[in-house]
Amino acid sequence: MTAAALRLLAVDDEPPALDELSYLLRADPRVGEVRTAGDAVSALKALEQAPVDGVFLDIRMPGLTGLELAGVLGRFAAPPPVVFVTAHEDAAVDAFSLRAVDYLLKPVRAARLADAVGRVAQAHRGGPAADPGPPDPGTIAVELGGVTRFLQVGDVRYVEAQGDYARLHTSGGSHLVRVPLASLEERWAAVGFVRVHRSYLVAVGAISELRVEPGGGHSVRVGSGPSAVVLPVSRRLSRDLKDRLVHRARREAER
């Protein structure tokens, strides 16, 4: 282990999940040591024996929960950075209010885990990196009564596919443009738009609710008040959407 290698503690009351997490962490070249604990009490005992550079922590555990354990760690003289690893997205705001550096949803994806390890490394070096602000969303040309005008992309709440065209929906109306939805998805990904369905592209900042439908599927509520709409979410796209909403909750909690 090199001097710069991270020393991590993984905490989960489910042995298979703990084994998988520790295996993935050890595979990261930035990580030099991974210790494990099956509950909060064992985790505190491990930390008494030797400090760590970061804690990867489940939330729902018997006895002391992950959120409660994070609260205890926050009172340490030198609190270790905490990453929550959970199957439940409903605790994200509480997690980031405890100054967690990241929040991962199970099953953990390698790319997201790598991001989280990077956040721990940055925090260990002296504080979490600030999120860069979004780039300028720019404008898009639309036809209004035979006149070409420019619509601010930031005013678009969602886009609906209509064949080779796309209908841009704002709070004040809609505009049809001859651009395929796939092209807008690629061009607008950097400014916060995400594909939620084969027919819909949505501005993440315009999403007010993520709903679980009776059949187990998902939908999103876009906007608020009388102008709000509910759009379906494809099952294969729901995971990426949840990840984005979790990151949004983290940024809002850090403000």
Automatic annotation (TrEMBL):
The keyword Nucleus is annotated on this UniProt entry: no
Protein name, entry field: Two-component transcriptional response regulator, LuxR family
HTH LytTR-type domain boundaries: 140-247
Gene Ontology molecular-function annotations: DNA binding; phosphorelay response regulator activity
Gene3D superfamilies per the UniProt record, alphabetical: 3.40.50.2300, LytTr DNA-binding domain (2.40.50.1020)
Keyword check for Phosphoprotein: yes
InterPro entries attached to this UniProt entry: CheY-like_superfamily, LytR-like, LytTR_DNA-bd_dom, Sig_transdc_resp-reg_receiver
PTM-bearing positions, type 4-aspartylphosphate: D58
Alphabetically ordered keywords of this record: Phosphoprotein
Domain Response regulatory positions: 7-121
Source taxon at top rank: Bacteria
Provenance organism: uncultured Frankineae bacterium
